[in-house]
Amino acid sequence: VASPRVQIVQMDVLDSAGAPLSLGAAQRFTSSQLDSMSIGEVRAVMERLGVDTAGCPDDKTELLARLCMSGRIVVSEEPLAPQVAVDARTAGDGSGSAATGDAGAPLPGRSVGELRRLAREHNVSLDGCLEKAEIVDRLRAAGL
């Protein structure tokens, strides 16, 4: 079954010093995640993937179109909401979904401000996180 998410495939991306840039695990975006990115975030993704931004105006629609046309990402539909199993030991004691960060919208559906607030509340460092997807990955790695 194909995942309804976007997967970015690393294509010999180099940093400013010419060294290979390690992206770690493949990043995944849904179409709503791409839509929720700021112009700066879209440009950062494009630059990291080696997509030329020269001559591209500060129009988010055109930037996203160029990014999608580059062949470096695939945009697909939103995933279905995951089914969350409730542990009988924590059900009803207030430590269930709120403690795991599942209160309200799933992490990718939250704003960057909400994600940063959640990280602060749980003492999760966001050092080095420049993009929303990196913040989401860091929060998930912390068990949120």
Automatic annotation (TrEMBL):
<feature type="region of interest" description="Disordered">
    <location>
        <begin position="87"/>
        <end position="109"/>
    </location>
</feature>
<protein>
    <recommendedName>
        <fullName>SAP domain-containing protein</fullName>
    </recommendedName>
</protein>
<feature type="compositionally biased region" description="Low complexity">
    <location>
        <begin position="96"/>
        <end position="105"/>
    </location>
</feature>
